[in-house]
């Protein structure tokens, strides 16, 4: 897409470009701050960032049932998802999509970078995940996740992706798929 689009003045966050490992580290720092343990922000600051907004008596609702909180979305997944709360943010430009998920109650962070535009978001990735699967090891879960990512990429014409996941502050999986430059 670089030959077709000028990104001048459009880079996210004023020109900050990140890696999967750095995004996972940032997510873990946010969760640490939220819990008041060794964070880089105060617990009060993160709780304020993650508090749903109201405008007068109206609560902005974005993306269906999610609530908006100062740049973050707050989701309460329905059953059978085991997570109490998902704090997330997504973004992208022409040719890229990102998704950043924090599960503060479970001390987990997940990220996805796709080198396909915004249309790739939410096209069946969660619906294909087997919520009833029981894994003996993290390697077994990653094996299934690899199959899911490759299937998603094929069905949605995504030429390349990076996935990452951390548990309790430790990166347990970061992996690239497909092409970085088509």
TrEMBL record:
GO molecular function per UniProt: peptidase activity
Entry's Gene Ontology BP terms: proteolysis; regulation of lipid metabolic process
Gene3D superfamilies, per database record: DD-peptidase/beta-lactamase superfamily
A single GO cellular-component term on record: mitochondrion
The organism's place on the tree of life at top rank: Eukaryota
Signal peptide: none
Ranges for domain Beta-lactamase-related: 12-119
PANTHER family given in the database record: SERINE BETA-LACTAMASE-LIKE PROTEIN LACTB, MITOCHONDRIAL
Name under which the protein is recorded: Beta-lactamase-related domain-containing protein
Organism expressing this protein natively: Oppiella nova
């Amino acid at each position: 897409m670089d030959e077709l689009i000028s990104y001048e003045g459009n880079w996210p966050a004023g020109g900050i470009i990140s890696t999967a490992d750095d995004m996972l580290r940032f997510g873990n720092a946010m969760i640490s701050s939220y819990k008041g343990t060794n964070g880089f922000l105060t617990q009060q600051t993160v709780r304020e960032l993650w508090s749903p907004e109201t405008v007068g008596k109206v609560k902005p609702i974005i993306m269906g049932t999610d609530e908006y909180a100062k740049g973050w979305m707050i989701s309460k997944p329905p059953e059978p998802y085991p997570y109490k709360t998902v704090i997330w943010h997504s973004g992208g430009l022409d040719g890229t999509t990102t998704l950043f998920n924090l599960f503060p109650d479970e001390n987990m962070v997940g990220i996805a970078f796709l080198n396909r535009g915004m249309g790739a978001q939410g096209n069946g990735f969660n619906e294909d995940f087997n919520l009833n699967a029981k894994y003996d090891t993290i390697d077994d879960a990653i094996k299934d996740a690899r199959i899911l990512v490759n299937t998603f990429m094929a069905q949605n014409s995504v030429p390349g992706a990076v996935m990452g996941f951390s548990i309790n502050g430790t990166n347990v999986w970061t992996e690239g798929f497909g092409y970085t430059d088509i």
